[in-house]
User: Fold this.
Amino acid sequence: MKNEERQPVPGPSAGGWRHLVWFHRQPLYWLKSLADQYGPLTAFRLGPWPFLLASGPKTVGTILRRHGKEFVKRPGLKTDNPLIGAGLLTTEGSYWAEERRREAPLFTPTNVKRLLTADVMPWSVKWADALPTDRPVELHSLFLRGTLDLVIRTLFADSGPQPLAAYQEDLAWIMHHFYHRLRSPFRPPYHWPWPFNRRYHEHARRLETFFDHWHPEPKLYETLGTRFNPNDPGDRAKAVTLLLAGQETTANALTWTLWLLATHPHWQQRLWEQPEELDGVLQESLRLYPPVWLISRETTRSVTFEGYDLPPHTKILISPWVSHRNPDVFPDPAAFQPQRWQSAAPPLDGYFPFGGGPRRCIGQAFAVGEMRAVIQAILARYRIEPAGPEPTVFPAMTLEPGTPVYVQLKSR
Assistant:
């Protein structure tokens, strides 16, 4: 077929500025409405900027697996970021491949099993024993503190002269900064004296004091066979990247999973009787509430894709939250049904809570093992009941609760 005969990618023909407002107000439901109405590949505008939304399994799988060829990660978090620098989150090409190769030994099956057995499981038991039963607990703040303590003890061996929990506010604000910077069309260089930049540097400097006084050799560097230099910006960037990636996403996933169990008590009882079904519960929770709700890609050159001609620098959005609610892949997609995983493997390219292709999350096995250990420790000691209204969903840098998540723990 000649180029001039090709049909344009389907999508709304107008409304770019309205779309921008909807995207900022209700991005999840608005993107899902596009996929429901226009299909697996949708063209739309956010203000004056053209985008595509890829939501069908075949479409998503092709884009993610062909990463580094026709498609690359869009430059949201820049390599000039003074805190996370040039690392796995921000780079592409051969530099990214080399960084991935260097950090791969940390997440081999053997090392993940060692970390889970030696650190995560004992910590989970001790932590769960100390949970309060005399009052409702707010799950999200509880897990943010807990996962921060766990990631530092597991990967870095020591909490330093001052507990890292003292820097929780700084970590939260830095993630808040990344979220707003990614969604803003105006991204001033970090050295500009912009008010938002100044606040970022204040929080970043406080977090860096943790490394200024840190003497023990981190476990991850023992595993990688290199030395940790606290004065080296590259080493600090790697450490901060692991902190940011290992804390909030896991805390959010645990929060949503415990809330789902609190509101589905028969599944609590089922896990008490058949703990081997926990994997299905985790898969279903990650389907409904994938921690990373939005992935962006960009074409590197002209591409003929799904019968459409895409020019270079075409911006593409992929939302696991949207794709995981495709009724053709998951019947009754809004329902919490862990039993759907008992007789079927995850559908190819229809389920990707940790991304896919070459840039699939390197720490997936560790994160799932961590979640499994924490939930098992809690369910072995407590029944969980909701103690507040259903939380709203807030799609920030990760998919977090927009309102407090209160539950009551009752000793078994």
